[in-house]
């Protein structure tokens, strides 16, 4: 034993002491202790709240090294036992330690000595080795709190051992930091630091290769653990893109919101964000709004963007903004409104009448009755009420006076029309409106005037008649056509409806022979050419033409070349003269001038005319040229005929210079045609003139665009002839319009274009389909009496079409039901409602009144028959009735009723009485409130009979009533039997069974859809039903049913499919499809379509276009809605007839009906309403995807911080304004231990027990995981299954490299290492060591052994450039000698292909100079 060693005395503790220590140790070992403990009334601090910086605790590393840590502490007070102290225990940090606990006797090591300072906690044992040996392992070990020496004892080795292992970033191994030497075959396990994930091979092993010890491995990388993208918060966002361990992000809120919670979160080592709770963006809060005087403010929240609405008490109206919104500046928008008292004020003076009940005031709800003086007719409403908008419901009526018939002095009421008959030869010139009494005056005074002629006098043959008017005394003038003269009176006069005088005739006139021409003749122009005109030709009719021609050698000198027969006279009337003439001087063509000059001199030498004669000849040439021009038009001419007869031709080389210039002028280009976008010009034949597009001879064809017509027949061409277009210059004219044929419709012009050449009509006269309407003119459409306009009432002509999508129609007008004094309508009708054309309504009178007309009211083209249904007092039927109405009789405030209107309708003929009702035992019977007299037989229509049961011992009393109506008793008769009554009441408390089996029907109870097939409901329960799609199905039966007496009242509703479900059958009502934008729509439980304000709604009525156009009917006239066949892409324009509601408002609410040409209809009731559900409450840990409460909004809830969601994950805002389910809550849930009995060799490490937390699986060395590597804590508090298993991992034999060998034999399990070696003179290419991995594969491929040169040896007193065991083929090494030595041999050696060196190694010899 070395001198420095300290002897160790060991003592064996008694059994009692041992048990006490064990007990104390068990108490002090570390466990789960998250809360403060109280022991024997003493409060202990939680050591986790004050960790030590001088002695940090690293339990994970301690566990890897096999050290068991005791209770952690920060002071001695934290230890349960007074025998223990809070001391530093190495990796375990500050722990509760028993200072007097001993470690066992340390074992001795070979070739070394052990020095011990003691065996108590903190003592050390130090190891040293003999000379030539080194301590491999820990040189000193410490006595730990668990009573064990740290780690294992070292060993003494000579040369081969490994030094400090490799260092990996963010990783550590399971050896103590102070250990710097390791024995061969030592294996270290590497682990990434907390917060990093291990990737690769985590082991390192100390191996000896070629006599040298080195570490193999590890091959790992430690990547920071990802926490994943952090969750965004509602109305906010996060800044930062780094989501791995150690990264931080910051949260921000949108405008109008403020952050509640910590704005910064960081990624923890366990892959979770901290803090776990997300901050929230809560709306900024505005101050509580004040209630206006006489009103109140209604609000559910004062947060940002919330709305407060104001309403006033009854009798007050709101002045100012009805709603205000909370802004981001914490202030309400606008200013606070006020409540102002509603007062409609005095309605004004009623002329010829008075106001009744005006003294009752003019505030909200006040009513006024309008009364007219006797004899006056009230036009308007008989009463009015002050409405909530501060206006009277109806304006002041008019009290209109009667009129006195002229010359008769009879008084007729306002509105009566006169029928005027005049004597013979006189007529009443009435306008389109009859003579009507209007408030005491006639619309126009009736007057009989001399009769007008019914039509114009008959026109004579070949003549016409002209007359400005056909009134009495007006004259008509006769005229004849050209070529005819009038024989008879030129004028006739209209006298008392007849034209006076004989009608004239038109006699044809002829032109006489004009006379003979000396040295000439007259030619008559005919259809086939020119003919000689002889005096015997008598009948030369109007417009016939003659030509004058001179004999040979003569020319026309004075006078016209021809004449025309006009009205029996020749025009012009003078005759020309033929004079002897000579040919003019001609201008020769330059090409043959020299050749023909002599020939022409000889030809004209015989003329021998003087220069003066030549001048006269030139003047004659001018006249001849005119004659030729006219003659060519009629296929002949004067001089040209002579030239043809003498066979003289001058068209080869000689031309007249003047004639050439005139011809060139006539053949100029035509005017350019318009180049508008609606004109398509096609050149059929171009001109020879390349410089002009429309030169002479050009033939063009014109096509006009839509809305334009060509001014010439279609496919007709135009030709440019002598600078003009023939037959006319082509042009495209705007198409006119013609009024369509619409039954019962009337078209009139609103404005006419005076500059247009298109025929227009009188503004006040109706148009027919033969009158054209110019482009841009407006036409007003109206209907005959008894019909209403459906569609646009104004049409504009635009390029041949009317600017409306569909033409208007005239539909029969409905009738408005009037108020019946002392009576009421039957079948639910009431005054103010309308009934359609052809329908009827019945009414009845109150007691004491009788029906004065038929009780059936019929509607015919907007008029009720009878016109004035009324109830009169019951006076008995006698001859006095007719006397009542013989003289004018006026009803106060009503229209005047004439005598014959009532007696002609069979007064009182339809009233029937009832037989006596059956008696009920145990009851008292009353008639109209009075006890019924026995043997009473007279029960007229309207009699009420009441039965009262005598009160029983139990106090039960029953009453019912029946009414006599048209000879029959109406009402249910009961009895007074107590048992029957009790049975009936018991039945009323029974439950009802609902069977949800009707296809296409949805039923609702308490705003929730019934999805079960069979449900039992309590008595009184109410079910609401509708079709699953109100546009595709129609319901039969009631939509509301109640459970009464164990049964459902009413028929069970059913839904049938419309035409889309029946292959678009024409005999089915049309299907209506709904498409919407900019807002939601929804179907209410009772089958209405709820539309959010501002939404754009398209309703497609399905009908085959080839069978006609359907039409939409709307129950109100708030506005006109565009309708027509859809043109949207992707839609069927041959099937979908659309009506669109743009930016829906409350006034658009109503019933929309589509009617097909087959008269089948389908209606949808639309309610425009802003539906919002209650605001989502703020609940801890609960986040929602949106704060919107609008109808159809879907809320999706999730819980944060590992909490579990209890309730519905998604809810929807229903059209009733309720959410489809209650709001969920978040509860904290933790998972316990993983599984029960885990599979063998499987280890588990719990990272977090919260919902979403992870537990990681691993296997013991030699085994690999099959299955998931981790499990998740579910919201149910259970760990996700299945769990993985551990299977033994074996790798296949890696093989032996060629020219090498392997160290190690199989089988090869996970973690085993194989070392490869090469034979002598071979070197290795690749990894010399591979390891068997957990996946059953080797960590690297098989290396190769390549031929090489071995180490050549060294030179004494010299150096070589590279010292290695082996050298590659072709590698060079160089040698050098120390100072004072000379190299003897080759300075460079090369490794040859055969593995030999190119030379022997050189030697270093002493420099001879150095020897001296």
TrEMBL record:
Disulfide bonds join 129-156, 312-339, 372-399, 783-810, 949-976, 1199-1226, 1259-1286, 1318-1345, 1377-1404. Residues 101-158, 160-224, 225-283, 284-341, 342-401, 451-508, 509-580, 668-734, 735-812, 912-978, 1171-1228, 1229-1288, 1289-1345, 1347-1406 form the Sushi domain. SUPFAM superfamilies: Complement control module/SCR domain. One of its GO terms (cellular component) is extracellular region. Signal peptide: none annotated. One of its GO terms (molecular function) is peptidase inhibitor activity. PROSITE patterns: SUSHI, WAP. Residues 19-36 have a biased composition (Acidic residues). It comes from the Eukaryota. PANTHER family: COMPLEMENT COMPONENT-RELATED SUSHI DOMAIN-CONTAINING, HIG-ANCHORING SCAFFOLD PROTEIN, ISOFORM G. This is WAP-type (Whey Acidic Protein) 'four-disulfide core.
């Amino acid at each position: 034993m070395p001198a420095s060693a300290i002897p160790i005395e060991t003592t064996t503790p008694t059994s009692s002491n041992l048990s006490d220590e064990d007990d104390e140790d068990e108490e002090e070992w570390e466990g789960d202790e998250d809360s403060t403990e109280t022991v024997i009334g003493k409060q202990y601090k939680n050591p986790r709240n004050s960790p030590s910086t001088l002695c940090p605790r690293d339990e994970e590393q301690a566990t890897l090294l096999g050290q068991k840590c005791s209770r952690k502490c920060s002071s001695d007070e934290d230890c349960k036992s007074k025998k223990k102290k809070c001391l530093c225990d190495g990796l375990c940090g500050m722990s509760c330690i028993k200072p007097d606990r001993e470690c066992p006797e340390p074992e001795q090591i070979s070739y070394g000595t052990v020095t011990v300072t003691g065996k108590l906690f903190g003592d050390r044992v130090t190891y040293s080795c003999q000379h030539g040996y080194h301590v491999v392992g820990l040189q000193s070990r410490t006595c730990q709190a668990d009573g064990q020496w740290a780690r294992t004892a070292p060993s003494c080795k000579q040369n081969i051992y490994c030094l400090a292992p490799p260092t990996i970033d963010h990783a550590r191994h399971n050896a103590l930091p102070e250990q710097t030497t390791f024995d061969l075959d030592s294996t270290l396990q590497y682990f990434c630091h907390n917060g990093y994930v291990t990737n690769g091979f985590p082991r390192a092993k100390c191996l000896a290769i070629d006599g040298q010890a080195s570490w193999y491995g590890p091959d790992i990388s430690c990547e920071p653990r990802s926490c994943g993208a952090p969750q965004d918060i509602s109305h906010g966002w996060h800044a930062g893109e780094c989501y791995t361990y150690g990264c931080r992000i910051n949260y921000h809120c949108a405008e109008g919101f403020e952050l509640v919670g910590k704005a910064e979160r960081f990624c923890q080592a366990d892959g979770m964000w901290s803090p776990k709770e997300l901050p929230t963006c809560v709306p900024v809060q505005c101050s509580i709004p004040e209630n206006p005087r006489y009103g109140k403010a209604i609000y559910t929240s004062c947060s940002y963007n919330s709305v407060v609405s104001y309403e006033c008490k009854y009798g007050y109206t709101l002045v100012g903004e009805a709603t205000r919104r909370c802004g981001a500046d914490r202030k309400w928008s606008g200013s606070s409104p006020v409540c102002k008292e509603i007062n409609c004020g005095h309605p004004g003076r009623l002329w010829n009448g008075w106001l009744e009940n005006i003294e009752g005031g003019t505030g909200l709800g006040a009513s006024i009755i309008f009364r007219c003086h006797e004899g006056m007719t009230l036009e308007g409403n008989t009463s009015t009420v002050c409405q909530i908008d501060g206006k009277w419901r109806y304006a002041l009526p008019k009290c209109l006076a009667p009129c006195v018939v002229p010359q008769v002095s009879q008084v007729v009421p306002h509105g009566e029309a006169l029928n005027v008959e005049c004597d013979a030869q006189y007529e009443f010139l009435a306008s389109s409106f009859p003579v009507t009494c209007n408030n005491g005056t006639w619309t126009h005074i009736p007057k009989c005037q001399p009769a007008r002629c019914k039509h114009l006098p008959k026109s004579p043959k070949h003549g016409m008649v002209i007359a400005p008017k056909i009134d009495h005394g007006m004259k008509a003038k006769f005229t004849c056509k050209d070529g005819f003269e009038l024989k008879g009176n030129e004028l006739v006069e209209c006298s008392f409806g007849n034209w006076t005088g004989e009608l004239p005739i038109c006699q044809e006139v002829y032109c006489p022979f004009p006379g003979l021409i000396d040295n000439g003749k007259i030619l008559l122009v005919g259809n086939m050419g020119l003919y000689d005109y002889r005096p015997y030709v008598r009948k030369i009719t109007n417009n016939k033409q003659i030509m004058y021609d001179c004999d040979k050698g003569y020319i026309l000198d004075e006078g016209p070349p021809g004449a025309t027969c006009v009205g029996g006279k020749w025009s012009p009337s003078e005759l020309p003269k033929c004079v002897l003439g000579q040919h003019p001087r001609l201008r020769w063509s330059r090409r043959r001038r020299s050749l023909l000059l002599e020939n022409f001199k000889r030809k004209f030498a015989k003329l021998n005319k003087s220069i003066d004669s030549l001048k006269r000849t030139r003047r004659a040439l001018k006249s001849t040229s005119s004659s030729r021009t006219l003659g060519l038009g009629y296929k002949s001419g004067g001089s040209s005929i002579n030239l043809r007869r003498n066979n003289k031709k001058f068209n080869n080389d000689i031309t007249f210079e003047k004639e050439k210039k005139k011809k060139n002028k006539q053949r100029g280009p035509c005017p350019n045609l318009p180049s508008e976008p609606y004109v398509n010009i096609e050149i059929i034949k171009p001109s020879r003139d390349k410089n002009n597009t429309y030169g002479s001879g050009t033939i063009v064809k014109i096509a006009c665009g839509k809305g334009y017509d060509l001014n010439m027949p279609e496919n007709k061409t135009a030709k440019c002839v002598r600078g003009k277009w023939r037959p006319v210059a082509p042009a495209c004219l705007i198409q006119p319009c013609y009024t369509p044929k619409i039954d019962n419709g009337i078209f009139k012009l609103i404005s006419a274009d005076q500059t247009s050449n298109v025929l227009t009509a009188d503004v006040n006269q109706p148009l027919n389909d033969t009158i054209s309407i110019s482009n841009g003119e407006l036409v007003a459409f109206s209907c005959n009496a008894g019909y209403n306009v459906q569609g646009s009432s104004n049409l504009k002509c635009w390029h041949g079409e009317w600017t409306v999508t569909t033409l208007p129609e005239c539909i029969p007008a409905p009738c408005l039901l009037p108020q019946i004094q002392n009576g009421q309508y039957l079948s639910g009708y009431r005054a103010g409602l309308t009934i359609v054309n052809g329908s009827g309504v019945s009414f009845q009178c109150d007691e004491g009144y009788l029906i004065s007309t038929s009780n059936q009211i019929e509607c015919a083209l907007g008029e009720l028959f009878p016109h004035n249904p009324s109830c009169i007092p019951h006076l008995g039927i006698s001859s006095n009735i007719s006397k009542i109405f013989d003289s004018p009789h006026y009803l106060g405030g009503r229209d005047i009723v004439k005598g014959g209107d009532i007696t002609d309708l069979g007064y009182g003929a339809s009233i029937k009485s009832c037989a006596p009702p059956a008696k009920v035992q145990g009851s008292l019977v009353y008639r109209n409130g009075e006890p019924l007299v026995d043997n009473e037989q007279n029960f007229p229509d309207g009699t009420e009979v009441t039965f009262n049961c005598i009160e029983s011992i139990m106090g039960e009393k029953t009453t019912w009533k029946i009414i006599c109506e048209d000879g029959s008793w109406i009402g249910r008769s009961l009895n007074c039997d107590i048992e029957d009554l009790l049975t009936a009441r018991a039945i009323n408390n029974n439950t009802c069974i609902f069977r949800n089996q009707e296809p296409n029907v949805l039923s609702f109870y308490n705003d929730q859809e019934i999805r079960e097939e069979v449900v039992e409901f309590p008595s009184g329960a109410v079910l609401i039903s509708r079709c699953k799609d109100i546009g595709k199905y129609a319901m039969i039966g009631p939509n509301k049913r109640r459970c009464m007496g164990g049964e459902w009242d009413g028929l069970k509703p059913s839904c049938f499919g419309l035409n889309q479900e029946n292959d678009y059958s024409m005999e089915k009502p049309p299907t209506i499809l709904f498409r919407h934008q900019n807002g939601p729509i929804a179907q209410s439980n009772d089958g209405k379509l709820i539309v959010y304000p501002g939404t754009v709604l398209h309703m497609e009525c399905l009908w085959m276009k080839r069978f006609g156009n359907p039409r939409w009917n709307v129950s109100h006239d708030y506005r006109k809605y565009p309708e027509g066949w859809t043109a949207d892409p992707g839609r069927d324009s041959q099937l979908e007839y659309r009506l669109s509601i743009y930016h829906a408002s409350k006034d658009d609410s109503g019933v929309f009906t589509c009617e097909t040409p087959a008269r089948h209809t389908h209606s949808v009731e639309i309610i425009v309403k802003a539906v919002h559900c209650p605001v989502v409450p703020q609940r801890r840990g609960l986040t929602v995807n949106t704060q919107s409460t609008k109808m159809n909004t879907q809320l999706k809830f999730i819980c944060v911080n590992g909490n579990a969601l209890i309730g519905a994950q998604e809810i929807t805002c229903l059209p009733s304004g309720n959410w489809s389910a209650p709001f969920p809550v978040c509860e904290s849930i933790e998972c316990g231990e993983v599984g029960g009995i885990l599979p063998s060799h499987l280890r588990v490490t719990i990272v977090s027990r919260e919902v979403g937390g992870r537990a990681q699986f691993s296997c013991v060395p030699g085994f690999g995981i099959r299955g998931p590597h981790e499990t998740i804590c579910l919201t149910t508090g259970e760990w996700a299954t299945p769990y993985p298993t551990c299977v033994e991992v074996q790798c296949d034999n890696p093989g032996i490299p060629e020219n090498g060998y392997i160290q190690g034999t199989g089988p090869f399990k996970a973690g085993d290492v194989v070392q490869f070696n090469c034979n002598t003179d071979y070197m290795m290419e690749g990894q010399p060591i591979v390891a068997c991995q957990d996946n059953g594969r080797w960590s690297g491929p098989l290396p190769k052994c390549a031929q090489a040169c071995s180490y050549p040896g060294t030179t004494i007193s010299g150096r070589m450039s590279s010292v290695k065991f082996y050298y590659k083929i072709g590698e060079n090494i160089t040698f050098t000698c120390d100072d004072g030595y000379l190299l003897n041999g080759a300075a460079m050696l090369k490794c040859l292909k055969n593995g030999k060196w190119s030379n022997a190694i050189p030697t270093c010899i002493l420099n001879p100079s150095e020897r001296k």
